[in-house]
Write a structure and sequence with these properties.
The protein is mainly alpha-helical. It contains nine helices and no strands. Bound molecules: protoporphyrin IX containing FE (2 copies).
Length: 196
């Protein structure tokens, strides 16, 4: 258990909760803005989207700051190294049920490092740029992006498609964390420490 307590300190768990709640709020409200699935909710859904977008961005900056300068300084857990090429093969073999034993690859395996440390932060920054390009008061500052992708209709489409990139990768993340490491899930979410 000591391993889990050390691997997932309280600030990391709180930031994970904030991320989860905001991403849920952004996906539901964004989906509604794209295609309202009941009447009269546009005002509240836009409000939810705006609150969540600011909170999630502050949370992202805080998580990055904490990764480099916080007590745990866990940035190196997400950095990719040459040995990750070999580790990717090992973990794919394991995920394809070819080998039974989980290989020793460190706290996060290479696909996890790639998704947690690179893909999601970059996608969120990209989503923020395309989102602020859609937002009236900031649209002028992001006009370069709108022009680059060929107009506001394309910005909306890109913002919408990026939501799907999140939904698909988060679905995989949820499936694997529940199926693969349920103890870690219990600790990460509820601070519950089952017997090891
Ligand atoms: C992180 C910063 C974000 C900003 C600044 C932002 C901003 C915006 C803005 C201004 C709109 C248009 C609202 C309107 O027309 O009233 C919008 C729509 C939308 N947002 Fe976001 N958003 C962000 C993140 C996200 C995330 C993370 C998701 C999904 C996971 C998302 C999904 C959507 C969708 C699906 C729409 C509707 C697009 C359409 O009209 O087809 N947004 N967003
Ligand atoms: C119900 C939904 C979710 C579940 C069950 C879940 C579960 C977990 C678990 C168990 C871990 C521990 C590390 C591991 O073994 O992989 C973790 C880490 C992580 N999760 Fe999630 N997660 C969920 C949603 C999300 C969302 C929506 C995001 C953001 C898009 C996210 C981002 C991360 C990141 C970046 C880590 C790396 C560790 C850290 O930040 O300290 N998760 N998640």
């Amino acid at each position: 258990m000591a391993r889990m307590v050390e691997e997932h300190p309280l600030p990391a768990r709180v930031m994970h909760w904030i991320h989860l709640l905001c991403m849920g709020g952004l996906a539901i409200s964004g989906w509604y803005i794209h295609r309202p699935f009941f009447g009269g909710g546009m005002g509240i859904m836009r409000w939810v989207h705006f609150i969540c977008m600011y909170v999630v961005l502050i949370n992202l900056v805080t998580r990055i700051y904490w990764a480099f300068l916080g007590a745990a300084r866990d940035w190196h857990e997400f950095s990719l190294r040459p040995r990750d090429i070999r580790n990717t093969v090992k973990i794919v073999v394991y995920y394809l049920f070819i080998k039974r034993e989980h290989p020793e690859v460190g706290k996060y395996n290479p696909p996890q490092k790639l998704i947690y440390g690179w893909l999601w932060p970059l996608l969120l920054i990209f989503q923020a740029i395309s989102g602020f390009a859609l937002y009236g008061p900031t649209a002028d500052y992001f006009a370069w992006f709108t022009v680059w992708v060929g107009g506001l209709a394309h910005v909306r489409l890109i913002h919408y498609m990026t939501m799907w990139a999140f939904i698909i990768t988060v679905a995989l993340h949820v499936y694997l964390s529940l199926a693969e490491d349920f103890k870690s899930f219990l600790y990460m979410f509820f601070g519950v420490r089952p017997e090891e």
